[in-house]
Design brief:
hpI Integrase, Chain A, mainly alpha, 5 strands, three-stranded antiparallel β-sheet, two-stranded antiparallel ribbon
């Protein structure tokens, strides 16, 4: 039997030990490739084909592009381990560099967060969608990653104490705490939309079969884009930016070590990036105030 790229990808995704949010993320990244080359024998999917494919992914941020490439790298490493191919065709392939003309940078300024005005518009945009609204509130108020939130079961959440524990990067557990506005919206979702016969906190109903499953990242992303794409001021805003917003709002209000614990960062240097961004924001505001005062006194 010819081993196609799609067959190998299916084995790659069916490996034991992968969390469902991870599988969903991998599927989302691999789907465009499989739609083009899924029926091809894996041994003829060479470096030139994959390099051209990655080059065509020019409509996504460079960090997302790097994740796509890393997932492809892992897929073909798996194929090598299974002895389906002799070598990884994209081994040591150089990663795409950020494009400053698109607002992409490697510096601290790459941290993107929502302004108070954008947050107001966002909450107005999601208020008619109980599930997305609950997700947005929890991401903004807890600093959790979307993958961590989607992995939660209903029993993982302490509704009385407004907190839950997540398993973050490096299998490190941490507590996330949310505010009353998030609790109110979560209650709305639980009352009106969540399927009680599933252990998952966030559930989805399959449109064709009516089957209930854990909400996938792909569905969340589709719902998110459908809502925010209708608000010009939210163009380009990502779900992950809510985590950045959580951090920038708390810098200066708590110790950096406490913020590091809440964010689940392994390195303190990662947390310190938000301090630098907040300082840059304060400088910008200070300059605007000086300009206003100077204009009034002249």
């Amino acid at each position: 039997m010819t081993l196609t790229l799609a067959i190998v990808a299916t084995e790659f995704l069916d490996r034991p030990g992968l969390a469902q949010p991870t599988i969903d993320s991998y599927e989302y990244a691999l789907m465009p490739l499989l739609s083009q080359y899924g029926s091809w024998p894996i041994e003829i999917v060479d470096r030139e084909i994959l390099t051209t494919y990655l080059h065509q992914l020019d409509n996504i941020a460079y960090t997302t592009h790097q994740r796509h490439q890393a997932i492809l790298q892992a897929l073909f490493n798996f194929a090598v381990q299974q002895q389906y191919i002799k070598a990884n065709p994209i081994a040591r392939l150089q990663r795409r560099k950020p494009d400053p003309t698109k607002g992409e940078h490697r510096s601290d300024q790459a941290i993107r967060y929502l302004t108070p005005e954008q947050l107001t518009l966002l909450y107005q945009a999601v208020e008619l969608d109980d599930r997305t609204h609950a997700i947005v509130r929890l991401l903004h108020r807890t600093g959790a990653r979307i993958s961590e939130l989607l992995a939660l079961d209903f029993d993982d959440v302490d509704l009385d104490q407004c907190k839950f524990q997540v398993l973050g990067k490096g299998n490190r557990q941490r507590w996330c705490f949310y505010s009353q506005d998030a609790a109110t919206q979560l209650h709305q979702y639980l009352k009106h939309e969540r399927a009680s016969d599933s252990p998952a906190l966030f559930t989805a109903e399959q449109p064709m079969t009516g089957d209930i499953s854990r909400l996938s990242y792909r569905t969340v992303h589709q719902d998110w884009r459908r809502i925010v794409d209708n608000v010009p001021q939210l163009a380009g805003v990502r779900l992950h930016d809510l985590r950045h917003t959580f951090a920038t709002e708390r810098v200066g209000l708590m110790g950096i070590e406490e913020l590091r614990a809440l964010m689940g960062h392994q390195s303190i240097q990662t947390t310190l990036r938000y301090q630098k961004v907040t300082s840059a924001r304060a400088e910008s505001i200070a300059q605007k105030v000086l300009q206003t005062l100077t204009a009034e006194s002249s």
